[in-house]
């Protein structure tokens, strides 16, 4: 599925009439205009970004687009998970309408997963859908959130509870922009890379164990890890676009992770998404061991690898006090993966052997959380 | 496509895996629980309604659902077009989440097109889509808005500019509830019935000319007109679900109509949607005549029929002052049907011969509006 073109990799997401390319390379920002016009007949774009990313890369993007004759309009938001709110959705929708972006035009997300999820949701609802282009700038966004068409915002009841499926028309993953990403955010994105290995690719997990330092420092192994992750995600999405089945595997670590994000009030000083996922994946492996589904050694091996990558792996690693287990349980109940009272969890039989369990008794989860709770 | 079952008519909307039934009959409210359970395995519903409709029909619906073991949760909103706002969308989304409606459960719209559009939008975005059932209670909603999956709210920039396509799983059009509808709202709905004749069914228009009084007073002709309208809409929707082509014909009269609704600030004391459509359809026929596409006699005949039905047919029929032609033009430019500067309008070659014109010069429209403007 991966093709090389000069120094670029191309991963195709096969979704019938909504198929699209993910380009991975190190000077895509400078070629954005041409790549867009090769695919869309669009005259105008509304670029959504956050202050951090905007300060670094907005000018280069705008220049590339304007050189190719595309009119631009920019909407800059605060960075951080709290930006994924109804208030900001309204602001973006308003900006896109104000720019008179038509159905043949596009919204561009320039930023991490927060900007991608929010801008994609806006693109999906303005005029009941305008074109959408992802220019992911965080590792997490390049390997995960920019691919697959899930968009959304958070609600007081939980993460990502409101949104639509709206596939992008193009994803431009410029690997050179990752150089300005903080170590902490890089590690957080790496958690999602590890996830693909843990779901169903034990060999990839082994390769990551061997190449971790190279991925964190150098570009070749890094680009390879990104392409491999995009391929893994693209395959799952192509098989199950709307998450009626297999796609739920991508939620490995996320039910626990989302509960922890909620428990820390989406305060990125305490926990960012990828960190929640890292802890969540360890918990999912430990819970699977507790249910006699997997060996406790696998949970230890996963925790070891994530820890070496600089990620938190236990609830105790989170700064400050966590709410009691029953409140965490409540957040889990409000998470999306609920089916008639019983909980749906992604559990595992070992590394690379995740599966969907839709009959997990809440009482077992509560007992487990109580045991693991640090306070 | 219409089948009779006892005293009921069934119109099927063919949309592959998203196909659904429209039931038309006179005691559907009392059988809602059974009809829903025959199609969905849902344990809980969130009912969205407005105060007018809620006072009349909510108890009967809740009773029918609870008798069949479905848990209910109700969200009651103010009546009127202004209810289609982001604020109310947030309130409904919040209520649906509060009720812990899961992906296998449903949102029910009990009301006119306002409630249907708003509740459908909420159902489309909560958890990226939960089931949705339309129980349309106005004539307009029964013949038009409840069928086809277009949902949405208004923006400061114009009508229905924000929304999603989210098909219902079932439409229950209980004709007996129309007895409490005001004459004015009945007439407004009738405008959309006439629209189907004007688009491509001259025979249906002739039948309406003959049966108008019967449709307004009695039940048999009325149910027939409703079923015929649903069939017409279902056929267009099945051919072009996402309005990339033919479906745009359903916008006959709507570009002018929406501009007038905006010009009267969605104040239903001055103008309701169907009235805007009535004036808009006359304007579309007159503009077509002005462009030498159709005979001016057709425009007169359309105006005559709508007027007899109690509908406004000219801008002068609207109470109060209208903004000047250039402001109306601006609203037309912000309407959805714009393509690279030129305007897309539904024009006609005569009664039952509407077509999509995507090259209408804005200058011609402005000149026409200036001529027709009452002030
Ligand atoms: N839609 C999906 O399928 C999906 C999948 C996974 C995660 N997500 C969502 O993604 C979000 C997390 O994404 P994220 O980790 O990218 O968070 P983010 O968007 O908040 O980015 C993290 C931080 O890095 C900064 N940043 C981004 N790129 C940078 C760069 N190149 N240089 C310097 N700073 C940069 C941002 O300003 C921000 O402060 C969560 O909201 C999560 O729910 C969505
Ligand atoms: N989604 C679509 O495809 C589509 C198509 C056409 C129109 N629409 C939308 O539909 C809306 C107009 O719908 P509407 O005309 O039904 O307006 P509405 O929902 O405001 O209803 C009109 C009035 O009638 C009252 N009412 C409804 N049913 C009643 C009953 N049985 N007895 C007594 N009172 C009753 C309501 O409370 C309201 O005051 C507009 O917002 C328009 O944009 C949508
Ligand atoms: Zn994630
Ligand atoms: Zn209408």
UniProtKB/TrEMBL annotation, chains A, B:
Binding residues for Zn(2+), per the UniProt record? 192, 254, 273
> Known CDD domains for this protein?
DHQS (cd08195)
Q: Which organism is it from?
A: Martelella mediterranea
Query: Per the annotation, how and in what number is the cofactor bound?
Result: Binds 1 divalent metal cation per subunit. Can use either Co(2+) or Zn(2+).
Chain sites annotated for binding NAD(+): 113-117, 137-138, 150, 159
**Which residues belong to any copy of the 3-dehydroquinate synthase N-terminal domain?**
75-187
Question: PANTHER family, per this entry?
Answer: 3-DEHYDROQUINATE SYNTHASE, 3-DEHYDROQUINATE SYNTHASE, CHLOROPLASTIC
Write out the similarity annotation: Belongs to the sugar phosphate cyclases superfamily. Dehydroquinate synthase family.
**What EC number(s) does this enzyme carry?**
4.2.3.4
Which Gene Ontology cellular-component terms appear in the entry? cytoplasm
Q: Which Gene Ontology BP terms does the record give?
A: amino acid biosynthetic process; aromatic amino acid family biosynthetic process; chorismate biosynthetic process
Q: What does this protein do?
A: Catalyzes the conversion of 3-deoxy-D-arabino-heptulosonate 7-phosphate (DAHP) to dehydroquinate (DHQ).
Q: Which InterPro entries match?
A: Dehydroquinate_synthase, DHQ_synth_AroB, DHQ_synth_fam, DHQS/DOIS_N, DHQS_C
Entry keyword rRNA processing: no
The primary gene name is aroB
Q: In which pathway does it act?
A: Metabolic intermediate biosynthesis; chorismate biosynthesis; chorismate from D-erythrose 4-phosphate and phosphoenolpyruvate: step 2/7
Which co-factor is required?
NAD(+); Co(2+); Zn(2+)
User: Where is the chain membrane-spanning?
Assistant: none
The protein's predominant localisation is: cytoplasm
The record's catalysed reaction(s) read: 7-phospho-2-dehydro-3-deoxy-D-arabino-heptonate = 3-dehydroquinate + phosphate
Name this polypeptide is given: 3-dehydroquinate synthase
Quote any Pfam family the record assigns: DHQS_C
